[in-house]
Write a structure and sequence with these properties.
about 350 residues; alpha/beta; Rossmann fold; seven-stranded parallel β-sheet; 11 helices; globular; NAD(P)-bd_dom_sf
Length: about 350
């Protein structure tokens, strides 16, 4: 990826910002264009904090460049001008309205960001080949473990059918995969979808359980543990996610022609998960221990008095569990950061960020 121009949408987001920093740190003479609308779905100060970290990293690597544009990919004219101006070689689409429960009460934002926005990116990739131009070499985009929906076969494999989404969010992510496949077939655009499994770590999303639990415990509020604690999640540390994305970016699916003379779609989908689902109650206990260790919570904190077991919520699934054999086969990589190690880093960051 040396000397390449890389567009990252959702660049102020959790994964996007960490990816930008990793590329600036490790790829010589890389030009990164970041776009994000900085919406207020969660605390904007965390997004601004991430952007400052990227700017600092860019200043340490003067041979590379970082440009940030505050804009929304659901605005087609913005996306078209962006591609015309910068002509990216690689596009990593991480911009999306996240969250399963929020999709139940605010569906419009999911259609705008996850469908209209992704369509605009696909169209811009398609038009990048106009006039015989080399155009986009590889489109990498975020899918989600949510696409597995009502599947009961474990672990979740990319070979499984995923036709039973249980939330609008999941349905939009499945639509992304279908749209990418169609554009890969018709326009020969190399594209790879990545199904992320419960990403966590420092400066993560406050709407995620580990972050929300910490906020509530610190305020002395009760935390609700869904399905009476009988949930399992494949928690994946942010550094493992970023490493997987970086490997995939460098290996676009090969363009081939079928017997009919038409393109065989240069299309792939991978799971990126820890392949080690953790029981939600065990996860909460480890989180509590690490928050006490980091002195975010006092040593005598009455954890049991702040815990409430409640039924499953609409849109949730009882288990997520990634089969990462395809990722291991093609890239020799398997995420492996232990939950305690990841939560320890989060707790230490939380203490520093909120100046506790």
């Amino acid at each position: 990826m040396e000397n390449k121009k890389i567009l990252i949408t959702g660049a102020a987001g959790f994964i996007g910002s960490n990816l930008a920093m990793e590329l600036l740190e490790t790829i010589p003479s890389v030009a990164i264009i970041g776009i994000d609308n900085l919406n207020d779905y969660y605390d904007v100060s965390i997004k601004e904090y991430r952007l400052k970290r990227i700017e600092k990293k860019a200043s340490e690597h003067e041979e590379s460049s970082w440009i940030f544009i505050k804009a929304d990919i659901s605005d087609k004219s913005v996306v078209d001008v962006l591609f015309q101006l910068y002509k990216p070689d690689i596009v990593v689409n991480l911009a999306a309205q996240a969250g399963v429960r929020y999709s139940i009460t605010n569906p419009d934002t999911y259609i705008r960001s996850n469908l209209d926005g992704f369509y605009n990116i696909l169209e811009a990739c398609r038009n990048s080949y106009n006039g015989g131009a080399e155009g986009v070499e590889h489109l990498v985009y975020a899918s989600s473990s949510s696409v597995y929906g009502g599947n009961t076969k474990l672990p979740f494999s990319t070979e499984d059918m995923v036709d039973h989404p249980v939330s609008l969010y999941a349905a939009t992510k499945k639509c992304n995969e279908l749209l990418a496949h169609a554009y890969s077939k018709v326009y020969n655009i190399p594209s790879t979808g990545l199904r992320f499994f419960t990403v966590y770590g420092p400066a993560g999303r406050p709407d995620m359980a580990y972050f929300g639990f910490t906020n509530k415990l610190l305020k002395g509020e009760k935390i609700q543990i869904f399905n009476y604690g009988n949930c399992k999640r494949d928690f994946t540390y942010i550094d493992d996610i970023v490493h997987g994305v970086k490997l995939v970016m460098q290996a676009p699916p090969e363009k081939k022609t079928g017997k009919d003379g038409l393109p065989i779609p240069p299309y792939a989908v991978y799971n990126i998960g820890n392949s080690s689902p953790e029981n939600l109650l065990d996860f909460v206990n480890i989180l509590q221990q690490e928050l006490i260790r980091a002195e975010v919570l006092p040593k005598d904190y009455d954890f049991e008095a702040h815990k409430e077991l409640v039924p499953m919520q609409p849109g949730d699934v009882p288990v997520t569990y990634a089969d990462t054999s395809a990722l291991e086969r093609d890239f020799g990589f398997k995420p492996g950061t232990k939950l305690r190690e990841g939560l320890r880093r989060f707790a230490e960051w939380y203490k520093e960020f909120y100046k506790i």
